[in-house]
User: Fold this.
Amino acid sequence: MDVEVCIKHFALDYKFRMSPTTLRIYQGFIKQFINQLGKTVKEITKKDVRNWITYLSAEKGYQPSTINSKIAALKLFFNYCLEEGLVSQDPTKDIKFVFVKENPPHYLLKEQIMQLRAFLEGQTQERAIMEVLYATGVRIGELVAMEKKDINWTERSIIIPEGKRKLGRIVLFTSECAEHLKAYLDSRTDNYPTLFVLFNSDGTRTNNGKIVEEWFRYYSKKLGFKVTPHTLRHTFAAHLAQRGMPVECIRTLLGHEKYQTTRIYAKLFDLARKEMYD
Assistant:
């Protein structure tokens, strides 16, 4: 079977097993690997895979986490090929993932949160976005996908219908967040269903979170410390840990499907609690 056709069939089979974004990224990794080798799927060996991993690390300088994502894509693809009888053996079977040093995620101190709030004073939409990210711990993709109908103002909660790996959940927000969110919504004159309306530099409407990420790069430059939408997600978790919330509860609010995914946050919880104690 032609390589392109094989990858297409793989994508169709996994269409409902993972998010569209993850599937698209995995397809890119698989194509990159096979195109570089110039071999058919049947001709690829374990040595080819190991040489590629060495090439990614030594010559391309990829981070271990990125290399592991590529390995995961290949493992999934060749497992599919084996099940479909497209290969007689899986060349990734005994391939190990690269060791990744797990550093605690970076988060902001409460003083830095206050500085960020002061910097955004008068910026109605940007302040509302910042408050929602900090109060709920949602991912940037979840933020831009939120709709006004998902909000329960009485309970101060927002439904996240499809998070990462299509895991739905409910997140809560504070009264301070509600105040700024209402101020932003009251300032709007449009009828768009989305909670936040974003525009590209050319004036076209978008739901791409990169616009918000660009804003945060600007904040970092002006404030003198790094802050990103994901930093606020880490900060949300850290500050809850400092208040004594159990790890399992924070894991649920973050929308992590498996405890393994939250493992790196364990160090963050320990660090956050130690700083509170000190």
Observations:
- The domain at 110-277 is CATH 1.10.443.10 (hpI Integrase; Chain A).
